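BUG: 3D viewer hangs when loading the predicted structure for this chain

Environment: internal workstation, default settings.
Expected: structure renders.
Actual: progress bar stalls at 90%.

Input used:
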Amino acid sequence: MSEEDSELERLKAKRLAEMQKNISTTQKTKSNSESQKETVSENPRDSLIKLLGFRGLEVLENAESQFPNETKMIIEKLFELIKTGEINERLDGGKLLALFRSVGLNVRMATKINVEQDGKFVSLSDKLSNQSSDDGDE
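C-alpha cells produced before the viewer hung:
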C-alpha cells in the first residue's frame, strides 16, 4: 500500500509541476501581449490617413493648419469611431469637409478654376486678365 501511496504522491507532484509551468507560461504570454499593445499604440492621425480617400488628406491638412486644436480633437474622435467599427468606409475629401463644416469649422480650400483656351487649360483669372488687357489695347 505504501508503495502505491508514494507512487501516487509522485504522480501528483509531477502533475502539479506541469500545471504550474503551464500557468506561468500563459501569464508570460499575456504580459508580453499587453506590453506589445502598449508599445504598438497607433497614432490616431496615421490610422485615419489610411482610411482617407480622394482629396481627404488635402482637406485634413488644410483643417490642421487652420484649426489645429479642434482638428486634433476631431481626429481622436474619428479614431475612436474607427476602432469601435462605427466607421468602416473610406472618407473622401467631400465627406471630411462636410464633417468639419457640420461641427462649425469652415475649412477654406484652395480652389482653382481652369478653362480651355486655344486647346490649353488656363486658369480663369489668367483668361480674364488676358481679355481685359486685350480690351484695353483696342
